[in-house]
Fold this protein.
Amino acid sequence: MNGNSATADSNGQYSAKPGDTVAVIPNTGADWTSSSAPSGSISLRNPDISSGKWSAQLVNSTTAAGVLTISAKASSNAALTKDAVFKVSAGDARNGSYKVFASNGTRQALALNFDTMSYVMTDDAGTAVSDSFSSDPTEAGTYLFKSARNTAKAINTRFRITTDTVVGSFPFQAAKVPGTYAVQPFVASRAMVTTQSALDGAYTRMGINLQAATRDSNIRQVQVANGGTMLYLCDEIGITSIAACPPVSLLTYNVTAGVAPDAWNIVNVADPQDSGTFYMASVAGKNVYLAAGTNLKAPNDSIFRIGLSESAVWPVSKASGGDTAGNWGTLDFTATTYTTLQARSDATGFGFTANLSSPSSSVLNLRVFTSPSSANYFASQDGTLSAVLGARAGPAAGYIQIGLMR
């Protein structure tokens, strides 16, 4: 096991962990079969099976222990059989599939296995890429994606994980530029809200709109109400809460269940062409509004949206995450400052501290960077997730940084 000999217990069984590589060598040529109990609980990764050897890495897809039985039958004499029984401990609770909302404007699926330290990222066209990941030696709780798409000098394809939520950066296809890849941030969850009434709440929604050569940003407060059946958006030039929104700027949408149980469709009651789909993730007990896709109205921007629940509390917090410039770094907030230390993909680094103020008297969990930053940025955070957005129509338009607590 893992290149070493193993000893069976008094019942003739071997103890194994998910991720262990087991090799069984017969003393004569053999034909092999294997089965697991419960059925299907144990699967094989990188199997190498021939008449002279059975070898594979064990994967437990459940959070309970399982049993794998490997049966060898002598090729020259079918009456000669031998079983090797392995008791495989429970898989890592973090293993599984997470719905990805990527800042290139796509929804994807990320399968993580912490026992085999491997991943599979499957895009919205069904194309999958797989490789390994490892612990980041420079930052506790951060992991490094290995990817053939990452050709930069420094590896900024990283992620962090908390219960049912992953935040990281990955080399996704660049929006509207097929065949070109860029390291971009994402949020992924396997705790999606599927009960309509649980959608209710006010959310400070940050977003970016993407074309092949242009990018823009937007910030709007949205509110889901009436048991999740209505969505209101304040389309005012200034950032304004729903409660303070002038009636002429208040857009109203009907909310209905989408095809997937976690998808929620919205249609503007005054303009049926203004429609889309959003999702709601539960992160540390708080709702987070998420959307990624293509705007159905011309010019059909690729869009990404993240909205944190409105709160009067602005906690002191420390987070790490990636940004749309391909950097990885910190997002550290006090009541009045934001500090970041970032690693660029060319292996250089930079950092700065900006003072914060409130840009809106009615949107409470939003701050704007003031001195000494030369470009305007906005920030929102809830103590678990943090986001920094470049102001629209300026040098930082279309920029977003997303972090998870550390």
